[in-house]
Amino acid sequence: MVKFAYTIAGSEATGGAGFQVDLKTFQQLGVYGMGTLTCIVSFDPKNNWAHRFVPIAPQIIHDQMEAALSSQDIDTVKIGMLGHPDTIDAVAQGLRSQSWKNIVLDPVLICKGQEPGAALDTDTALRQKILPLATVATPNYFEACTLSGMTALKTVDDLTEAGKRIATQGPKYVIVKGGIDFPGPDAIDVLWDGEKATVYSEPKIGQERVSGAGCTLAAAITAELAKGADIHDAVKTAKDMVTTGIKARVSAHTPFDTVWQGAYTK
Protein backbone atom coordinates (compact mmCIF):
# COMPACT_ATOMS: atom_id res chain seq x y z
CA MET A 1 0.00 0.00 0.00
CA VAL A 2 1.37 3.39 -1.01
CA LYS A 3 2.16 5.80 1.82
CA PHE A 4 2.08 9.56 1.29
CA ALA A 5 4.32 12.30 2.66
CA TYR A 6 3.74 15.98 2.07
CA THR A 7 6.19 18.88 2.10
CA ILE A 8 5.59 22.61 2.43
CA ALA A 9 8.89 24.23 1.53
CA GLY A 10 10.85 26.52 -0.76
CA SER A 11 12.41 25.62 -4.08
CA GLU A 12 16.21 25.66 -4.32
CA ALA A 13 17.20 25.44 -7.98
CA THR A 14 20.52 23.63 -7.55
CA GLY A 15 18.74 20.67 -5.92
CA GLY A 16 20.78 20.91 -2.76
CA ALA A 17 18.11 21.97 -0.28
CA GLY A 18 14.41 22.57 0.25
CA PHE A 19 11.58 21.13 -1.82
CA GLN A 20 13.88 19.22 -4.16
CA VAL A 21 15.68 17.49 -1.28
CA ASP A 22 12.41 16.60 0.41
CA LEU A 23 11.01 14.86 -2.66
CA LYS A 24 14.27 12.99 -3.31
CA THR A 25 14.34 11.83 0.31
CA PHE A 26 10.71 10.71 0.23
CA GLN A 27 11.31 8.74 -2.95
CA GLN A 28 14.46 7.09 -1.60
CA LEU A 29 12.57 5.93 1.49
CA GLY A 30 9.66 4.54 -0.49
CA VAL A 31 6.90 7.07 0.09
CA TYR A 32 4.89 9.03 -2.47
CA GLY A 33 5.93 12.69 -2.21
CA MET A 34 3.61 15.65 -2.66
CA GLY A 35 4.15 19.29 -1.90
CA THR A 36 3.41 23.00 -1.81
CA LEU A 37 5.98 25.61 -2.80
CA THR A 38 6.30 28.58 -0.43
CA CYS A 39 9.08 30.53 -2.10
CA ILE A 40 11.74 30.35 -4.79
CA VAL A 41 15.37 30.68 -3.77
CA SER A 42 18.03 30.91 -6.45
CA PHE A 43 21.69 31.45 -5.71
CA ASP A 44 23.40 34.27 -7.61
CA PRO A 45 26.66 32.96 -9.11
CA LYS A 46 27.61 36.54 -10.05
CA ASN A 47 27.38 37.68 -6.41
CA ASN A 48 29.31 35.08 -4.42
CA TRP A 49 26.35 32.69 -4.56
CA ALA A 50 24.16 34.95 -2.43
CA HIS A 51 20.48 34.11 -2.04
CA ARG A 52 17.77 35.60 -4.25
CA PHE A 53 14.43 35.14 -2.49
CA VAL A 54 10.97 35.37 -4.06
CA PRO A 55 7.90 34.51 -1.94
CA ILE A 56 4.89 32.73 -3.43
CA ALA A 57 1.62 34.65 -3.12
CA PRO A 58 -0.57 33.48 -0.20
CA GLN A 59 -3.51 32.67 -2.48
CA ILE A 60 -1.30 30.36 -4.56
CA ILE A 61 -0.11 28.65 -1.39
CA HIS A 62 -3.75 28.19 -0.38
CA ASP A 63 -4.59 26.77 -3.81
CA GLN A 64 -1.68 24.30 -3.73
CA MET A 65 -2.60 23.05 -0.27
CA GLU A 66 -6.26 22.75 -1.20
CA ALA A 67 -5.41 20.67 -4.28
CA ALA A 68 -2.95 18.37 -2.52
CA LEU A 69 -5.02 17.78 0.61
CA SER A 70 -8.13 17.09 -1.47
CA SER A 71 -6.38 14.58 -3.71
CA GLN A 72 -5.26 12.10 -1.04
CA ASP A 73 -5.75 11.32 2.64
CA ILE A 74 -2.54 12.90 3.95
CA ASP A 75 -1.73 12.90 7.66
CA THR A 76 2.02 13.55 7.71
CA VAL A 77 3.70 16.78 6.60
CA LYS A 78 7.15 18.33 6.73
CA ILE A 79 7.44 22.12 6.88
CA GLY A 80 10.62 23.80 5.70
CA MET A 81 11.38 27.35 4.67
CA LEU A 82 8.39 29.67 4.84
CA GLY A 83 10.23 32.96 4.69
CA HIS A 84 7.50 35.58 5.05
CA PRO A 85 4.78 36.38 7.63
CA ASP A 86 2.06 36.25 4.95
CA THR A 87 3.30 32.81 3.92
CA ILE A 88 3.16 31.66 7.53
CA ASP A 89 -0.44 32.88 7.86
CA ALA A 90 -1.45 30.97 4.71
CA VAL A 91 0.29 27.77 5.81
CA ALA A 92 -1.12 27.96 9.33
CA GLN A 93 -4.62 28.34 7.90
CA GLY A 94 -4.08 25.36 5.61
CA LEU A 95 -2.75 23.19 8.43
CA ARG A 96 -5.81 23.97 10.53
CA SER A 97 -8.11 22.83 7.73
CA GLN A 98 -7.70 19.19 8.78
CA SER A 99 -6.28 16.96 11.51
CA TRP A 100 -2.73 15.62 11.32
CA LYS A 101 -0.93 12.66 12.78
CA ASN A 102 2.52 14.20 12.26
CA ILE A 103 3.63 17.78 11.59
CA VAL A 104 7.42 17.85 11.28
CA LEU A 105 8.82 21.38 11.47
CA ASP A 106 12.33 22.22 10.33
CA PRO A 107 12.27 25.71 11.91
CA VAL A 108 14.18 27.82 9.39
CA LEU A 109 14.51 31.05 11.35
CA ILE A 110 16.88 32.95 9.11
CA CYS A 111 15.89 33.41 5.50
CA LYS A 112 18.95 34.69 3.65
CA GLY A 113 18.02 37.39 1.17
CA GLN A 114 15.59 39.17 3.48
CA GLU A 115 16.05 42.50 5.20
CA PRO A 116 16.79 42.07 8.95
CA GLY A 117 13.44 43.57 10.00
CA ALA A 118 11.48 41.28 7.70
CA ALA A 119 13.48 38.29 8.93
CA LEU A 120 12.63 39.16 12.55
CA ASP A 121 8.92 39.42 11.70
CA THR A 122 9.13 36.02 10.01
CA ASP A 123 10.88 34.45 12.99
CA THR A 124 8.26 35.81 15.39
CA ALA A 125 5.36 34.62 13.24
CA LEU A 126 6.89 31.15 12.90
CA ARG A 127 7.22 30.79 16.66
CA GLN A 128 3.71 32.05 17.33
CA LYS A 129 1.74 30.36 14.55
CA ILE A 130 3.58 27.23 13.36
CA LEU A 131 5.73 25.92 16.21
CA PRO A 132 2.71 25.34 18.51
CA LEU A 133 1.11 23.16 15.79
CA ALA A 134 4.17 20.93 15.31
CA THR A 135 4.41 17.42 16.69
CA VAL A 136 8.12 17.21 15.82
CA ALA A 137 10.69 20.02 15.60
CA THR A 138 14.22 19.60 14.23
CA PRO A 139 16.18 22.78 15.09
CA ASN A 140 19.85 23.09 14.25
CA TYR A 141 22.40 24.54 16.67
CA PHE A 142 21.55 28.19 15.96
CA GLU A 143 17.80 27.60 15.87
CA ALA A 144 17.91 25.60 19.10
CA CYS A 145 19.78 28.42 20.86
CA THR A 146 17.30 30.99 19.57
CA LEU A 147 14.15 29.02 20.38
CA SER A 148 15.38 27.91 23.80
CA GLY A 149 16.89 31.23 24.85
CA MET A 150 20.24 29.57 25.51
CA THR A 151 23.45 31.29 24.43
CA ALA A 152 25.50 28.16 23.71
CA LEU A 153 25.19 24.37 23.60
CA LYS A 154 28.45 22.83 24.76
CA THR A 155 27.39 19.46 26.19
CA VAL A 156 24.83 16.74 25.59
CA ASP A 157 23.01 18.02 28.67
CA ASP A 158 22.80 21.43 26.98
CA LEU A 159 21.28 19.86 23.86
CA THR A 160 18.78 18.06 26.07
CA GLU A 161 17.88 21.21 27.98
CA ALA A 162 17.31 23.08 24.72
CA GLY A 163 14.99 20.29 23.58
CA LYS A 164 13.04 20.44 26.82
CA ARG A 165 12.59 24.21 26.56
CA ILE A 166 11.47 24.07 22.94
CA ALA A 167 9.01 21.27 23.75
CA THR A 168 7.19 23.62 26.15
CA GLN A 169 6.31 25.73 23.10
CA GLY A 170 4.27 22.99 21.44
CA PRO A 171 6.16 20.10 19.83
CA LYS A 172 5.81 16.66 21.41
CA TYR A 173 9.24 15.66 20.12
CA VAL A 174 12.30 17.86 19.61
CA ILE A 175 15.46 16.74 17.80
CA VAL A 176 18.28 19.18 18.54
CA LYS A 177 21.03 18.91 15.93
CA GLY A 178 24.51 19.69 17.23
CA GLY A 179 26.14 19.65 13.81
CA ILE A 180 29.48 21.26 13.04
CA ASP A 181 28.98 23.94 15.69
CA PHE A 182 28.84 21.44 18.54
CA PRO A 183 32.33 20.96 20.07
CA GLY A 184 34.15 17.67 19.77
CA PRO A 185 34.80 15.04 17.09
CA ASP A 186 31.24 13.73 16.83
CA ALA A 187 28.08 14.96 15.11
CA ILE A 188 25.55 14.60 17.92
CA ASP A 189 21.77 14.91 17.74
CA VAL A 190 19.53 14.57 20.78
CA LEU A 191 15.86 13.56 20.71
CA TRP A 192 13.76 14.77 23.63
CA ASP A 193 10.55 12.73 23.67
CA GLY A 194 8.93 14.34 26.69
CA GLU A 195 10.34 11.80 29.13
CA LYS A 196 13.91 11.03 28.19
CA ALA A 197 16.73 12.05 25.91
CA THR A 198 18.11 9.72 23.24
CA VAL A 199 21.52 10.51 21.79
CA TYR A 200 22.40 9.80 18.15
CA SER A 201 26.12 10.16 17.44
CA GLU A 202 28.40 9.64 14.47
CA PRO A 203 31.95 10.86 13.86
CA LYS A 204 32.03 14.20 12.06
CA ILE A 205 32.82 13.96 8.35
CA GLY A 206 35.08 16.92 7.72
CA GLN A 207 34.63 20.37 9.24
CA GLU A 208 32.63 22.05 6.48
CA ARG A 209 28.85 22.39 6.33
CA VAL A 210 27.16 20.30 3.67
CA SER A 211 24.02 21.75 2.11
CA GLY A 212 20.82 19.78 2.52
CA ALA A 213 21.71 17.87 5.69
CA GLY A 214 18.98 19.46 7.80
CA CYS A 215 16.37 19.16 5.06
CA THR A 216 17.26 15.51 4.53
CA LEU A 217 17.03 14.69 8.24
CA ALA A 218 13.59 16.28 8.66
CA ALA A 219 12.29 14.80 5.40
CA ALA A 220 13.54 11.33 6.32
CA ILE A 221 11.84 11.54 9.71
CA THR A 222 8.66 12.61 7.89
CA ALA A 223 8.85 9.69 5.47
CA GLU A 224 9.42 7.16 8.23
CA LEU A 225 6.58 8.54 10.35
CA ALA A 226 4.32 8.39 7.29
CA LYS A 227 5.11 4.68 7.09
CA GLY A 228 4.16 4.24 10.74
CA ALA A 229 7.60 4.14 12.35
CA ASP A 230 8.19 5.00 15.99
CA ILE A 231 9.85 8.41 16.45
CA HIS A 232 13.07 6.85 17.81
CA ASP A 233 13.38 4.51 14.83
CA ALA A 234 12.51 7.35 12.45
CA VAL A 235 15.31 9.53 13.83
CA LYS A 236 17.76 6.62 13.65
CA THR A 237 16.97 6.04 9.99
CA ALA A 238 17.21 9.76 9.28
CA LYS A 239 20.57 10.03 11.02
CA ASP A 240 21.91 7.06 9.04
CA MET A 241 20.65 8.54 5.78
CA VAL A 242 22.25 11.92 6.42
CA THR A 243 25.56 10.35 7.44
CA THR A 244 25.61 8.21 4.30
CA GLY A 245 24.61 11.19 2.15
CA ILE A 246 27.36 13.39 3.57
CA LYS A 247 29.97 10.69 2.93
CA ALA A 248 28.74 10.52 -0.69
CA ARG A 249 28.45 14.30 -0.98
CA VAL A 250 28.13 15.92 -4.40
CA SER A 251 30.58 18.69 -5.25
CA ALA A 252 29.73 21.58 -7.56
CA HIS A 253 30.89 25.01 -8.71
CA THR A 254 29.25 26.39 -5.55
CA PRO A 255 31.38 27.05 -2.44
CA PHE A 256 29.72 24.10 -0.68
CA ASP A 257 28.95 20.43 -1.31
CA THR A 258 25.49 18.86 -1.06
CA VAL A 259 24.09 15.70 0.49
CA TRP A 260 23.38 12.83 -1.92
CA GLN A 261 20.21 11.08 -0.81
CA GLY A 262 20.58 8.42 -3.49
CA ALA A 263 23.54 6.85 -1.71
CA TYR A 264 21.32 5.54 1.08
CA THR A 265 19.63 2.15 0.99
CA LYS A 266 17.58 0.75 3.85
Name of the CATH architecture: 3-Layer(aba) Sandwich
Radius of gyration: 17 Å
Briefly note the CATH topology name: UDP-N-acetylmuramoyl-L-alanine:D-glutamate ligase
Overall structural class, as computed from helix and strand content, comes to: alpha/beta
Corresponding CATH superfamily: Ribokinase
Strands ordered across the widest β-sheet: 3-2-1-4-5-6-7-8-9
Count the DSSP helices. Answer: 8
Order of helices and strands: EHEEHEHEHEHHEEEEHHE
Mean pLDDT reading: 94
Task: Give the number of DSSP strands.
Answer: 11
CATH class type: Alpha Beta
Portion in strands: 15-25%
Helical proportion, percent range? 25-40%
Calculate the terminal CA-CA distance, rounded to whole Å.
Answer: 18 Å
Uncertain residue ranges: 112-117
- What is the global morphology? globular
Note down, in words, how this protein is organized.
Helix 2 runs parallel beside helix 3, helix 5 packs across helix 6 and helix 7 packs antiparallel against helix 8. This protein has a nine-stranded mixed β-sheet with strand order 3-2-1-4-5-6-7-8-9. It contains eight helices and eleven strands. By secondary structure, it is of the alpha/beta class.
